[in-house]
């Protein structure tokens, strides 16, 4: 398993998501605008009553938020993981690392190991989530998987599914066959921490979630098509003209975040659902919770703030997110997450038609959206 480009790629990805416009069109603002929460002129509570703390992987978080897995794997990434970990620890929110494939390829390189390890060293009191590509599992031994978990003392392992990204990536690995399911079965009991099945920005469908749910997996990060668009990110790295044209044609491919939340919760009512993909403000984050998510994941805005303006800008972003989440919760009259999950929501006729065509009954869905 050699991939000489992997270190460069890590840096290029950060540079591209910071410098280029690689989000889905309008970051799904039309879809989010049409999801309406009901304003309460008399919320029946004080703003100071709102407490959005939540449990995730046996930790108490101050808010239903996580810093989604992004980086590690090159010494140049250490400074970013360090700052992200400072934010996670300070705000008491969860954090993931980026794909740990480099840890196996560069097994004895202390600087590479450090680029990941630094996260756990700093983020001591919050959940830390490891990360590996589903296709990479085909090349790893069970000991390798134990190693990537233990090296950062991870509380869970996210296995990412990114077929759209790999199909456009110049050095893409497009193996996504049933053998991967066998590998996941093989490691499920072996690794000792929960597996989170995760997309990277094109969304998990009802079918995907059902499949992994039937294998016993109960954690999903739907990473929907509203934020960072990996088809466009890889387009910037691709020199082949035919593939870049295809990337343009597919630039809005995927399941938007709010839709993927409903697909996932309908397929896996008693699971823990993380919503990432364009969760760029507190209003969206609360809409996601009301729709059925348990936690929100944020990636691009944080790396962008840190890269361009430094740690304090990252802090300001998270302060804004959390304060906005509290205010929106207050305005719906919800004191906490379990009350939010019972609050009404209105969907557009397009969304209703979509759900009907997907065989999801909204009345039944409203009964289970808070989890069972
Ligand atoms: C620079 C960068 C690197 C990423 N690397 C990974 C990765 O290695 N593994 C993974 O599962 N997701 C990765 N992601 C995807 C994020 O975890 C997240 O699911 C996705 O970007 C959607 O969130 P966003 O719209 O807030 O960026 C990466 C995202 C960014 C911005």
Structure in a nutshell:
The chain is α/β, with parallel strands linked by helices and 372 residues long. It is 47% helix and 12% strand.
Q: How would you portray this structure in words?
A:
The protein is α/β, with parallel strands linked by helices. It has a single domain, classed as Aldolase class I (TIM Barrel). Helix content is 47%, strand content 12%. It is built from 18 helices and 12 strands. It has helices spanning 6-19, 29-33, 78-91, 101-105, 110-122, 142-150, 163-168, 179-188, 206-214, 230-237, 241-249, 257-267, 282-291, 300-309, 311-332, 337-340, 349-357, 362-368, and strands at 36-37, 54-56, 59-61, 65-67, 94-96, 128-133, 156-160, 195-198, 219-221, 272-276, 295-298, 345-346. It has an 8-stranded parallel barrel with strand order 4-5-6-7-8-9-10-11, surrounded by 4 helices. Strands 1-12 form a two-stranded antiparallel ribbon. It has a two-stranded antiparallel sheet with strand order 2-3. α3 (78-91) runs parallel beside α5 (110-122), α13 (282-291) packs across α15 and α14 packs antiparallel against α15 (311-332). The N and C termini lie far apart (42 Å). The site of flavin mononucleotide has 27 residues, from α1, β7, β11 and α14. Residues 13-14, 17, 68-71, 98-99, 131, 158, 160, 198, 200-201, 223, 227-228, 276-279, 297-300, 303 line the site of flavin mononucleotide (FMN).
């Amino acid at each position: 398993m050699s991939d000489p480009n992997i270190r460069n790629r890590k840096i290029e990805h950060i540079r591209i998501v910071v410098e280029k416009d690689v989000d889905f069109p309008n970051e799904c603002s039309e879809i989010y605008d049409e999801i309406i929460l009901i304003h309460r002129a008399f919320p029946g509570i004080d703003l100071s009553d709102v407490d959005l703390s939540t449990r995730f992987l046996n930790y108490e978080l101050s808010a239903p938020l996580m810093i989604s897995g992004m980086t590690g794997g090159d010494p140049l990434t250490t400074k970013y993981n360090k700052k992200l970990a400072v934010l996670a620890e300070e705000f008491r929110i969860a954090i993931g690392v980026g794909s740990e494939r480099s840890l196996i390829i560069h097994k004895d390189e202390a600087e590479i190991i450090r680029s990941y390890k630094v996260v756990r060293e700093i983020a001591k009191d919050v959940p830390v989530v490891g990360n590996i590509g589903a296709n990479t599992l085909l090349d790893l031994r069970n000991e390798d998987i134990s190693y990537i978990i233990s090296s950062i003392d991870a509380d869970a392992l996210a296995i990412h599914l990114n077929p759209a990204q790999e199909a456009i990536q110049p050095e893409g690995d497009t193996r996504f066959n049933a053998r991967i399911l066998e590998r996941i079965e093989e490691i499920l009991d072996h690794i000792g921490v929960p597996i989170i099945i995760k997309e990277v920005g094109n969304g998990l469908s009802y079918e995907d979630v059902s499949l992994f749910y039937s294998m016993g997996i109960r954690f999903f990060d739907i990473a929907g098509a509203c934020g960072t668009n990996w088809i466009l990110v890889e387009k910037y790295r691709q020199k082949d003209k035919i593939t870049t044209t295809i990337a343009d044609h597919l630039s809005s491919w995927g399941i938007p975040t709010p839709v993927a939340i409903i697909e996932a919760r309908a397929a896996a009512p008693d699971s823990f659902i993380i919503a990432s993909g364009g969760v760029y403000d507190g209003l969206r984050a609360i809409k996601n919770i009301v729709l059925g998510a348990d936690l929100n994941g944020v990636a691009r805005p944080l790396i962008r703030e840190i890269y361009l303006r430094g740690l304090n800008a990252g802090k300001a972003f998270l302060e804004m997110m959390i304060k906005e989440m509290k205010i929106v919760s207050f305005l719906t009259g919800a004191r906490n997450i379990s009350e939010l999950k019972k609050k009404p929501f209105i969907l557009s006729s397009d969304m209703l038609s979509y759900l009907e065509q997907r065989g999801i009954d909204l009345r039944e869905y409203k009964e289970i959206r808070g989890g069972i």
